[in-house]
Write a structure and sequence with these properties.
Keywords: 4Fe-4S, Electron transport, Iron, Iron-sulfur, Metal-binding, Transport. InterPro entries: 4Fe4S_Fe-S-bd, 4Fe4S_Fe_S_CS, cNMP-bd_CS, cNMP-bd_dom, cNMP-bd_dom_sf, FAD/NAD-bd_sf, FAD/NAD-binding_dom, RmlC-like_jellyroll. It comes from Sphingomonas lycopersici. This protein is of the alpha+beta class. It folds into five domains: about 5-160 and about 280-350, 3-Layer(bba) Sandwich (FAD/NAD(P)-binding domain), CATH 3.50.50.60; about 170-275, FAD/NAD(P)-binding domain (3-Layer(bba) Sandwich), CATH 3.50.50.60; about 355-505, Jelly Rolls (Sandwich); about 515-630, Jelly Rolls, CATH 2.60.120.10; about 645-755 and about 795-840, 2-Layer Sandwich (Alpha-Beta Plaits), CATH 3.30.70.20. It contains 24 helices and 43 strands. The strands form twelve sheets. Strands 1, 2, 5, 6, 9, 10 and 19 form a seven-stranded mixed sheet that branches. The protein has a five-stranded parallel sheet with strand order 11-18-12-13-14. Strands 20-27-22-25 form a four-stranded antiparallel sheet. The longest helix has 23 residues, at about 610-630. The radius of gyration is 30 Å and the shape is globular.
Length: about 850
């Protein structure tokens, strides 16, 4: 038998090092096993000079090891000194290859494990649990026997790999040791988490290095990164040191070049090096071989643990990143607490206990923090896959409230992007005066605001005394990115509600269950087709995010037929008529569609005549458009070409993702600038549009004015959440704007500017009768400077079109146009506008 200790600790990161320090302090025999020749390999591999944060700031540190924010080198140096001072017993170059029981297996403890792999396949294995003590076998043949084992091995050794063509080239790496080692290179950092952001900032810190650094993020937001890192990234972007590409993925890597799929299509850019920082997954095979179960079969799932970190293998504890707690301060507290527990201190509460207790204090029942956490986890469907440790971290960013029967949770048109889970009771959605639809215990609501950023679509009240969890947007996005079951649950519920809302026809959740079971959400690149003219197929496609155009080949050319914004569907013609696809449907921008199985949808239509009649009406309208174009293919070929070119121009200039866009008919415009003056007079003297800027095709001009996009780019990273969507689709910025400029940088159409509100100017009559003030329109800089409050510089705020929200009569620019040249176009009017281009010829 090998060396015998009370506690064997595997991994010397912050969690393991803190556990070893506590064991040494308590005089417990222990051995800290580190596979490298140095402590804390994860932090050791941080880029040189990296500033290590100590978050969350409100959490106290219990560890016997010191830790405060500072440089990587200083922290490692201090830990090395303290490890020696505290008598920590460390074995370096000691890699554990197996952990097994020394005695009989626990009867009936064989457990089948189903693991989902990256390629979509799954593997079933059996694991056997043993009772302690455990034998740890090292790769060099040594053995250690321990009464308790603490796994603190982290996940960084198992990074998520790139899966595109060229991912195996030498220019692709998954670690950045020293940013100063790279000079005069075009470097792409893949991943918008803390590691990716910090790598990008390090590579771009010294302009003398000459690096051209681009950070590529799959989503529009940086949900998993710390706020301070995101702020630093945005500052670097504004200074021109880092280029940020959001909603983008890598499709191909070649020597000297990278191909990216962006929101607006495929781009090829020079690239010398790719640094992929896309997160990591637990080393599942090794962990399960120890007899430890995971919460699910998902690759990113975490081990199933008790509130005191004990796994399903008795006497084996899991802490740190492997437990789902990656923050250093959390890890160190866990190391301290688990050794206290092993030593018999069963009364010790986690360090975040007072914070969580305060959140539950106002609830009607008296329960402990752990009891409330388990109550919420087991009663809200999207939280079922979280471990007790993950629930604690989740609730630090969320709130829980009790509501009386009839109490309003939120009102229709109110701003808000949080998600609610019904832990007890039920919520009532007011769909019409006196008509309510219930949302029962376990379900969620508010997902529309979370996904689209729109204002609340309905008033929701508590149907009975209820307890609701309010999940902040940040916490919800983090939950979806780190917990696959939660993401699937939210996606299913949001998809179901979109189908019920769109198709109506008296459908219920039970009616669409079969269709929903076969539904698949697909991401479609800009320009990619979902239907091709002449192909067989009967699936229905619902546009969830983005927009599509419908084209038909006439005389060898693709002719534009119609535009489909989010919330539309297509494909019913082939399903009902049993014919091949009659047109091609392609994405105008990066989009998401829900593919519904055609056979399942056909059975639903057969059972619901009202739905079938709705589909037939939609089909008839599309057949009319087809007939219109077909009838003119010979005598009006030039007209058809102009019609298609006009439509293409409008899509290319933002209408492809717009809900409302300002167009100017150049045949009617007399250049009076009344539109700009009216806009300024309606908005504190600051015009939201530039008539002369923008692009023109034929007689149609698209000035610099907000498109009110279906999925607004400007909302992607607004720290105070000051950008909202109004009840009529308008995207507006409220008074909480802090002037950070993120929205201006994220807008692809250049319609947002940063400016300070000018001094109040006299009214129009004062100017006409007495010559006071600058007159109609935006005041000049000279007048603003002259009448500004002495010595007071007003802070800047974001300025953009809000469609004159709250002003009677609608948009002032349209009302002020004396010739009718200015028009505002919604997606349903797209075809009419394209025909204007045709008629102009």
């Amino acid at each position: 038998m090998g060396e015998r200790v009370r506690i064997a600790i595997v991994g010397s990161g912050p969690a393991g090092l803190s556990a070893a320090a506590r064991a040494a302090q308590l005089g417990l025999s222990h051995l800290l096993l580190e596979k490298t020749d140095h402590l804390s390999d994860t932090i050791y591999k941080y880029q040189k000079g990296k500033h290590v944060m100590a978050t969350p700031s409100q959490l106290v540190l219990r560890s016997d090891m010191d830790f405060a924010a500072g440089k990587r080198e200083a922290i490692l140096g201090r830990w090395n000194d303290q490890a020696a001072e505290r008598g920590i017993d460390v074995a370096y170059n000691a890699e554990v290859k197996a952990i097994g029981g020394t005695g009989e297996a626990i009867p009936g403890s064989i457990h089948k494990i189903v693991e989902r792999k990256r390629d979509g396949t799954s593997e079933t294995r059996e694991i056997q649990r043993h009772a302690p003590p455990y034998r740890l076998t090292l790769t060099d043949g040594r053995e250690i026997v321990a009464d308790a084992v603490i796994l603190a091995i982290g996940t960084q050794g198992n990074p998520n790999l790139m899966r595109c063509a060229g991912a195996d080239l030498p220019c692709v790496q998954y670690q950045l040791d020293d940013p100063a080692a790279y000079n005069d290179e075009h470097i792409f950092v893949i991943g918008g988490g803390d590691a990716g952001i910090e790598n990008a900032l390090g590579l771009a810190a010294d302009e003398a290095q000459g690096n051209v650094v681009t950070l590529v993020n799959r989503s529009a937001e940086f949900a998993t990164a710390k706020g301070a890192n995101v702020k630093a990234l945005m500052a670097a972007s504004e200074a021109g040191r880092v280029t940020i590409l959001t909603e983008s993925t890598t499709s191909k890597i070649e020597p000297g070049q990278i191909t990216l799929d962006t929101r607006d299509g495929e781009v090829k850019l020079r690239c010398d090096r790719v640094i992929a920082r896309m997160g990591s997954a637990p080393p599942r095979g090794f962990v399960e071989s120890c007899g430890i179960e995971f919460t699910s079969g998902d690759r990113l799932a975490f081990p199933r643990l008790s509130p005191m970190f004990e796994s399903t293998a008795p006497g084996i504890f899991v802490i740190g990143a492997l437990a789902g707690y990656p923050l250093i301060k959390h890890c160190m507290n866990q190391g301290h607490d688990v050794v206290e527990f092993i030593n018999g201190n069963t009364e010790l509460k986690p360090a975040d206990e007072p914070i969580l207790a305060a959140k539950f204090a106002a609830l009607p029942e008296k329960r402990s923090v752990s009891e409330w956490l388990e109550f919420l986890r087991s009663n809200v469907s999207i939280l079922e896959g979280l471990s007790p440790l993950q629930m604690r971290e989740f609730m630090l960013d969320s709130e829980v409230r009790a509501y009386r029967a009839g109490e309003v949770i939120f009102e229709k048109h109110a701003p808000g992007s949080s998600l609610f889970g019904v832990a007890r009771g039920r919520a009532l959605v007011e769909v019409a005066p006196g008509v309510d639809v219930p949302i029962d215990q376990g379900s969620i609501f508010g997902e529309v605001g979370l996904i689209s950023g729109r204002r609340r679509g309905a008033t929701i009240r508590a149907g009975e005394p209820s307890i609701m969890v309010e999940v902040s947007r940040t916490a919800a996005l983090k939950l979806m990115s780190s917990n696959p079951p939660a993401k699937r649950a939210i996606t299913r519920i949001s998809t179901e509600r979109q189908l019920l809302q769109m198709f109506g026809a008296g459908l219920t959740s039970a009616d669409v269950a079969e269709v929903l079971d076969s539904a698949e959400i697909l991401t479609v690149k800009a320009g990619e087709t979902i239907l091709n003219e002449g192909d067989a197929g009967n699936d229905i496609y619902v546009i969830r995010v983005g927009s599509m155009i419908v084209e038909k080949k006439i005389g060898g050319k693709n002719v534009f037929l119609s535009y489909l914004p989010a919330g539309s569907y297509v494909g019913e013609m082939a399903l009902i008529a049993g014919t091949p696809r009659t047109a091609t449907v392609r994405a105008t921008v990066r989009s998401e569609v829900i593919r519904l199985n055609g056979d399942a949808f056909a059975r639903l239509m057969a059972a619901k005549p009202a739905l079938l009649e709705r589909a037939r009406r939609d089909m008839a309208a599309r057949q009319d458009v087809n007939a219109f174009v077909e009838s003119r293919k010979h005598s009006f070929s030039t007209v058809v070409d102009m019609y298609s070119e006009t439509a293409k121009f409008l899509v290319d200039n933002g209408i492809g993702e717009a809900t409302d866009v300002l167009l100017i008919d150049e045949n009617l415009c007399v250049g009076c600038d009344n539109c700009e003056k009216a806009c300024a007079d309606s908005h504190e003297g600051l015009s939201r549009l530039d008539r002369e800027a923008g692009r023109t095709y034929a007689h149609l001009h698209v000035p610099t004015s907000c498109r009110h996009c279906e999925h607004p780019h400007c909302m992607a990273d607004c720290p105070p959440n000051a950008i909202h969507r109004g009840p009529d689709g308008e995207v507006f910025i409220d008074e909480t704007c802090i002037g950070c400029g993120n929205c201006q940088r994220n807008c692809p159409y250049g319609v947002i500017r940063m400016d300070s509100v000018p001094p109040e100017k006299p009214g129009l009559l004062q100017w006409l009768l007495f010559g006071r003030g600058p007159g109609p329109g935006e005041p000049s800089k000279k007048w603003r400077h002259k009448h500004a409050e002495p010595g007071v510089e007003k802070p800047k705020k974001a300025i953009k079109c809000d469609m004159c929200s709250g002003i009677d009569g609608g948009p002032a620019c349209v009302r002020a146009c004396p010739t009718g040249a200015a028009i505002r176009v919604a997606p349903e009017d797209f075809l009419t506008v394209a025909r204007l281009g045709r008629e102009a010829t």
